[in-house]
Q: What sequence folds into this?
């Protein structure tokens, strides 16, 4: 763990799909460094023999049965769509195919 | 009992409506008038549902007239934090990115309240996506503390706490990821309970940090809190993390004494960080409980000092994924005229999320990113185990743990927004509880010298909300202080 | 320098559950766009996933059939990336604790059997489907497929040729279809295969730089794409060049792979445990219950068919290619038919009728005992093998029993020697030329005369008897 750099902020904002202006980047370098620096406190603890806690609740095997339930009608499904042709959610043309 | 039903508690309203002493419509009208009179100052509501509230109240009255069952919250006017999904109105999490969003379904807790006969008054202000401790991060408006309009109501359920304190609803629903029910309850002099993780369904609660979030009530007194918990609790097949455990009747467990109960005082909570004024109030409350027959023991929660670091790693990591879905494709804000999908995402998110949300998304993305997972996220999960174990060990020696809810009373608007770390550190007493998954309640224990409420926090064993409520009730019935109500209108 | 190909396969199959993996929406493939969707599979705010038990059981069944170890403790994770087909902008998948791992699959190429290691098979959710054909500079997103249960099966880099890859896919598909856990329909996208291909000098132990080939619509296409890619990489290496690590798509029309996106923008998926789901703990008892439901698997069945029924390897291969076909064959034998004969009818005429009518064997109107009865009629000399073909066709079309068809259409073979002798005499009389030829020593003229006898009896003459009687009549006169 070390001090966060402007490159780190740019890398992370790329992953998060946020666009930051220069001033914001500078501010975040300071803020995130301070916060991450504070988090180095955790290195005081030896946790090599400690299991991680994913859930505070110790539960396993919660399932639903394979039964079909009613879906939304399409009008409702598309109700909040910023752009739609009544059938599909529309986005700017995707060129790169995954 | 005051003539104005807006001043009544939920159980008083329910009794009066059920017995026919007052109509549900009259109660709803009283609350709507109160909102009309106060909310310009308090700014708790982001949306008031006057018309439908009256219709729901009329429906309760009609069922009563037909002699039908009206439910345990018959005619009780309720406010909802704006992150509960409701078919009615909008569900925005007080974020620009969800402006105008209409949920196609009701949250499980909303359904349960409706089935119990509650009347919904509208949606309440909050920190955007529940990220904050002052409600100043709302993209909609600034809510003020009814006890002092120059002060914050706490957060993130600040609108909920302010509305209850100002009698603008009989009780409100909030959510608590790191203290977001208890801290504003303390700031506004309400009772606020964060149940055990898994006690109340999260289905329809817009997620902030999924392994920490819990839904809970903010109420005027402990009995109302127990009443609300009766309705809210229990397994929901739509939430895999909701516990399949018996709920029982929380109101039946209330007794006006604390005989035979052992109360643990964690030494790590009574340090210099706790203001002298606040400390005095907590100690007086503990004395009052001793007077009611409780035995006081000192306990230790040795990893308390690591909680803030653990919490801000886990909650931001989970949030970074939970908030990824707000991308302008299926719902919510979409940036205009984006040339391609990449630009659409970037501009939509950058325009739609406020600065604190962006900061937390970036922090959470960072701690999960390649090469840092072990140092931050995995490490935090392990320390989380230690924090949880601290509590379970302490509960070997006591039935509940008692301490302050926050180190200081409500601060002034704008006072702390400049420094995020300082803001995060003010959650010191509340966040370990979410990390451990245990239940805890904040309730008022007097006014500090500044005239603002102090909050007493009572923490319980997993799924033992009943004992928390019993201790709280014993204290409330015997605390020997009259805080009065804030004079808003 | 001699190079060898090192190939690993990643196969995604949609599991055959009725509802999606985390919500109750139907998995129906044919539904109009965005009609099998709900708040959960649209990733709307406030929703939570609840896992489909059947999807877990199907995954475990597949794992067991592939010889995998079943994790006693497993969990779902979030895989974070942004794409318009991904409702939540993370995919619920499995990272470090897959449901099943460490198995293998036997393949056979040119009579040589070989085991391909299976690294893991894990459960995840499918994505939505994007359509680029709407025009107007937009793409459309259909979330019907979003959240359909997917099993991702990852092989070890044990595959050395395109033919082995083809055999691997064929064997895998066969096993999954035997289990009934997936349709494995590549056209509908319920099976999608990607190949990771690299070359290295023969004898080397380190891996070369790999490319990932995807978007292939058939097994044979995959084979061709791999062949192409091996040749392409070999040419680069032989010229002293370096293979670029990238994803390449298969252009079936041109028969080439094309670069899609270089891996420089390497994904940083930020996996972490899915907090909305609790761990999956498949204990020994549950595993045993699932194991009990497993059918006999294709390879075991082939071996048994050869052993038990004495069938040749080719026949067993055809008969076991499809579980329902193999079940059908065994039912015919069970009903009393001789295995080799039963096999010939199933693989031959019946298979053709099914294919021509596009009828799945499960919907075949010829019951196994009906086919066995029909074979019995041939054995008993009631009908000829030739007539039997027509009988089967009618059984197939109408569902009637063979006896009924034979009776209603008067197809009983004429085995009455007096009656046939009369026909033989008439045929000789009417065809003096060929009869003369025969008597003159041209023995193959007999064939024509037998044909005439069959024609005269509308095919009902017992061919063996007709032959004998004709010879007798010709030689006597
Ligand atoms: Mg995958
Ligand atoms: Zn769905």
A:
């Amino acid at each position: 763990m070390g001090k966060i750099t402007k490159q780190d902020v740019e890398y992370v904002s790329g992953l998060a799909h946020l666009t930051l202006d220069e001033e914001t980047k500078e501010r975040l370098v300071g803020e995130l460094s301070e916060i991450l620096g504070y988090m180095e406190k955790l290195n005081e603890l030896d946790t090599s023999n400690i299991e991680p806690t994913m859930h505070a609740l110790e539960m396993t095997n919660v399932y639903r049965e394979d039964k079909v339930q009613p879906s939304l009608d399409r009008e409702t499904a598309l109700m909040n769509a910023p752009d739609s042709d009544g059938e599909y959610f529309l986005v700017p043309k995707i060129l790169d195919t995954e | 009992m005051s003539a104005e039903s807006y001043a009544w508690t939920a159980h008083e309203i329910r009794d009066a409506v059920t017995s026919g002493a007052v109509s549900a419509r009259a109660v709803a009208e009283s609350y709507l008038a109160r909102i009309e009179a106060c909310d310009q100052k308090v700014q708790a509501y982001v949306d008031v549902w006057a018309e439908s509230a009256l219709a729901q109240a009329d429906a309760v009255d009609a069922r009563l007239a037909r002699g039908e069952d009206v439910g345990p919250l018959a005619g009780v006017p309720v406010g909802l934090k704006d992150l509960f999904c409701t078919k009615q109105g909008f569900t925005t999490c007080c974020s620009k990115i969800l402006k105008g969003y209409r949920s196609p379904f009701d949250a499980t807790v909303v359904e349960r309240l409706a089935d119990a006969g509650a009347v919904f008054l509208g949606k309440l202000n909050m920190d955007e996506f529940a990220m904050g401790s002052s409600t100043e991060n709302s993209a909609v408006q600034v809510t003020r503390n009814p006890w002092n309009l120059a002060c914050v109501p706490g957060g993130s359920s600040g609108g909920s706490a302010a509305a209850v304190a100002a009698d603008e609803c009989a009780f409100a629903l909030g959510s608590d990821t790191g203290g977001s029910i208890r801290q504003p309850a303390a700031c506004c002099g309400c009772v606020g309970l964060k149940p055990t993780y898994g006690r109340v369904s999260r289905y329809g609660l817009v997620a902030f940090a999924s392994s920490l979030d819990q839904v809970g009530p903010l109420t005027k007194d402990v009995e109302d809190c127990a009443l609300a918990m009766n309705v809210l609790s229990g397994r929901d097949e739509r939430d895999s993390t909701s516990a399949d455990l018996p709920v029982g009747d929380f109101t039946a467990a209330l007794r006006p004494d604390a005989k035979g109960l052992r109360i643990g005082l964690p030494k790590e909570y009574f340090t210099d960080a706790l203001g002298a004024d606040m400390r005095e109030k907590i100690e007086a409350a503990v004395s009052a409980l001793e007077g009611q027959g409780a035995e006081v023991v000192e306990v230790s929660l040795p990893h308390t000092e690591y909680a803030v670091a653990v919490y801000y790693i886990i909650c931001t990591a989970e949030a970074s994924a939970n908030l990824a879905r707000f991308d302008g494709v299926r719902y919510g804000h979409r940036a205009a005229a984006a040339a391609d999908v990449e630009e659409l995402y970037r501009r939509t998110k950058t325009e739609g999320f406020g600065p604190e949300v962006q900061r937390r998304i970036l922090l959470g993305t960072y701690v999960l990113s390649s090469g840092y997972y072990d140092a931050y996220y995995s490490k935090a999960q392990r320390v989380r185990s230690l924090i949880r174990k601290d509590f379970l060990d302490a509960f070997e020696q006591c039935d509940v743990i008692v301490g302050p809810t926050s180190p200081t009373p409500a601060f002034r608007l704008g006072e702390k927004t400049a420094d995020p770390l300082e803001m995060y550190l003010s959650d010191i007493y509340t966040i370990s509880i979410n990390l451990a998954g245990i239940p805890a309640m904040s309730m008022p224990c007097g006014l500090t010298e500044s005239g603002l409420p102090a909050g007493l926090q009572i923490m319980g064993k997993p799924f033992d909300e009943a004992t928390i409520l019993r201790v709280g009730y014993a204290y409330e019935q015997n605390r020997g202080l009259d805080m009065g109500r804030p004079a808003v209108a | 320098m001699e190079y060898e190909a090192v190939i690993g396969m990643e196969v995604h199959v949609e599991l055959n559950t009725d509802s999606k993996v985390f919500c109750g929406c139907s998995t129906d493939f044919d539904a109009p766009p965005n009609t099998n969707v709900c708040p959960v599979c649209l990733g709307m705010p406030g929703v939570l996933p609840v896992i489909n038990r059947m999807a877990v059981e199907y995954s475990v069944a597949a794992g067991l059939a592939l010889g995998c170890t079943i994790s006693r403790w497993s969990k779902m994770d979030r895989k974070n990336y942004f794409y318009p087909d991904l409702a939540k902008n993370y995919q619920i998948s499995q990272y470090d604790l897959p449901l099943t791992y460490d198995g293998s699959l036997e393949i056979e190429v040119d009579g040589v059997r070989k085991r391909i290691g299976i690294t893991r098979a894990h459960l995840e959710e499918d994505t939505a489907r994007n359509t680029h054909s709407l025009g107007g500079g937009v793409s459309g997103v259909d979330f019907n497929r979003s959240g359909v249960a997917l099993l991702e099966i990852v092989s070890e880099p044990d595959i050395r040729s395109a033919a082995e890859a083809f055999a691997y896919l064929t064997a895998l598909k066969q096993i999954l279809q035997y289990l009934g856990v997936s349709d494995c329909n590549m056209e509908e996208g319920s099976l999608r295969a990607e190949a990771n291909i690299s070359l290295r000098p023969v004898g080397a132990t380190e891996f070369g730089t790999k490319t990932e080939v995807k978007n292939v619509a058939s097994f044979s296409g995959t084979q061709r794409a791999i062949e192409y890619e091996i040749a392409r990489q070999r040419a680069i290496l032989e010229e002293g060049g370096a293979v670029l690590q990238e994803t390449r798509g298969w252009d079936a029309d041109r028969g080439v792979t094309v670069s899609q996106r270089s891996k420089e923008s390497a994904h940083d998926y930020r996996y972490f445990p899915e907090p909305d789901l609790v761990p999956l703990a498949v204990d020994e008892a549950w595993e045993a219950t699932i194991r009990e439901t497993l059918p006999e698997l294709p390879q075991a069945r082939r071996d048994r068919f050869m052993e038990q029924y004495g069938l040749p390897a080719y026949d067993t291969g055809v008969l076991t290619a499809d579980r329902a076909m193999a079940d059908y064959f065994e039912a015919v034998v069970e009903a009393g038919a001789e295995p080799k004969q039963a096999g010939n009818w199933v693989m031959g005429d019946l298979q053709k009728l099914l294919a021509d009518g596009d009828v799945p064997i499960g919907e075949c109107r010829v019951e196994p005992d009906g086919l066995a009865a029909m074979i019995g009629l041939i054995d008993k000399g009631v009908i000829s093998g030739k007539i039997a073909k027509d009988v089967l066709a009618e059984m197939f079309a109408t569902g009637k029993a063979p006896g009924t068809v034979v009776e209603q259409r008067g197809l009983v073979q004429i085995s009455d020697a007096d009656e046939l002798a009369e026909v033989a005499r008439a045929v000789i009389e009417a065809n003096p030329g060929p009869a003369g030829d025969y008597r003159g020593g041209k023995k193959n003229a007999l064939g024509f005369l037998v044909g005439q006898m069959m024609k005269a009896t509308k095919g009902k003459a017992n061919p063996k008897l007709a032959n004998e009687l004709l010879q007798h009549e010709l030689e006597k006169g």
Remarks:
- The interface with chain B takes residues 39, 42-51, 78, 80, 82, 84, 87-90, 141, 268, 270-272, 275-278 of chain C (CB under 8 Å).
- The CA atoms of residues 413 and 460 of chain C lie 4 Å apart.
- Residues 417-476 of chain C form a domain with the Arc Repressor Mutant, subunit A fold (CATH 1.10.10.410).
- The two ends of chain C are 80 Å apart (CA to CA).
